[in-house]
Write a structure and sequence with these properties.
The protein has helices at about 20-45, 45-70, 80-90, 100-110, 125-135, 175-180, 190-195, 200-205, 205-210, 225-235, 245-260, 270-275, 280-285, 295-315, 325-340, 350-355. It has about 350 residues and is mainly alpha-helical.
Length: about 350
């Protein structure tokens, strides 16, 4: 009996070398975030753990609720809501009231994701929309900071964590005084630079402390080293476009360096700008959001450079010490336009023809 000839399958490009589903990519992003979450708990104790848990449950619960209300299969299994919950918690102060974190999770998923049609259709990063909401609604709570590595952080909550809904957040001033933490001023390095001792505050903040995560700040933004290592994992797995964080870091450095050269006594160093606040967390895990960033090779560079530039401008001249959140949201809004403007020329056509066709 004659053997059948082997079947040869012919396909046009692009040729997919390995299958990567949405849930596989999202799951690996969660893996990359877990060390950052673990360090947050180690740094700020059970209050940070409760914050992560509540924000996570709020995002997952909101997505599941709206899927049920619209008679659609639940999409919580794609891990996108998990990422939004973790990122939201990591951008909040460690002593942020839990009910406010739950509200932020609901708003972020409902307004920034569900209303746009779900995963892949959202224009803005849901975690940042949730944080922007509580930034406007609860300005005192969102700017109340606690010291890192406080004694007793694994046995007692930060007082403001368990504040009841719609009541005045519990003041943590006396609690911080009772801890007798040397050198803690109740502000982040960025806040000190802007509102405290002026631009010279960056001199009193050790670059090593900023890089390693030994300062006060949001729950997961402090360790630039750990965030970069986790981002390298995603780049190695080819699950993140390395050009976006690279462009954002480059844009921040160049802009800050320009101002520093103009007046070193009034503006902080580029290194301080890079390692302080939420720049690294935003560059690696938020600006690189696949659904809210451009898709063209040139566009991703413009997108990242724009966010880095805006971050420095808001930090130096805005009313708030931090500018990463608003810079990324602005970049998200500009992303569709950037993608359109930077579309590569179709092979075999002229630039004039492409312009006429558009």
């Amino acid at each position: 009996m004659a053997e059948k000839a082997p079947m040869i399958e012919l396909r046009t490009s692009p040729h997919v070398r390995r299958a990567q589903s949405v849930d596989q990519i999202m799951r690996n992003v969660v893996y990359a975030l877990l060390p950052v979450c673990a360090f947050s708990v180690y740094q700020f104790g059970i209050s940070a753990f409760a914050l992560l848990l509540i924000a996570l449950l709020a995002c997952i619960g909101t997505e599941h609720l709206f899927c049920r209300l619209s008679d659609k299969p639940t999409t919580v299994g794609d891990y996108s809501a998990v990422i939004s919950g973790l990122l939201l918690a990591l951008t909040l102060p460690p002593g942020f009231p839990l009910w406010m974190a739950a509200l932020a999770g609901f708003v972020g998923i409902a307004l920034a994701k569900v209303m746009f049609g779900g995963i892949g259709l959202n224009v803005f990063n849901p975690a940042l929309v949730g944080r922007a909401f509580v930034q406007a609604a609860f300005p005192v709570a969102i700017t109340t900071w606690t010291p890192a590595f406080a004694p007793g952080r694994f046995t007692e909550f930060i007082p403001s964590t368990l504040t009841l809904p719609f009541t005045e957040p519990v003041a943590v001033t006396q609690w911080v005084k009772d801890l007798a933490v040397d050198g803690f001023t109740g502000a982040t390095p960025l806040a000190l630079q802007k509102f405290g001792n002026g631009a010279l505050a960056h001199v009193t903040t050790s670059t090593t402390d900023l890089f390693m995560g030994m300062t006060a700040g949001s729950a997961g933004e402090t360790s630039a080293l750990l965030i970069l290592v986790c981002g390298a994992y995603l780049i190695f797995r080819r699950m993140m476009d390395w050009r976006i964080p690279a462009a954002m870091i480059l844009g921040t450095f160049v802009t800050a360096w320009g101002f520093f050269l103009l007046d070193p006594s009034s503006y902080p160093t580029p290194v301080f700008m890079l390692f302080s606040g939420g720049l690294m967390l935003g560059a690696v895990f938020m600006a690189s959001d696949m659904t809210a960033s451009p898709v063209t090779p040139v566009g991703v560079w413009i997108y990242g450079l724009l966010i880095g530039f805006l971050t420095v401008i808001i930090r130096l001249f805005g009313g708030l010490p931090e500018g990463v959140m608003y810079a990324i949201l602005f970049g998200n809004a500009a992303s569709p336009l950037i993608s359109v403007v930077t579309q590569p020329r179709v092979y075999g056509t002229s630039g004039k023809k492409r312009k006429a066709d558009s």
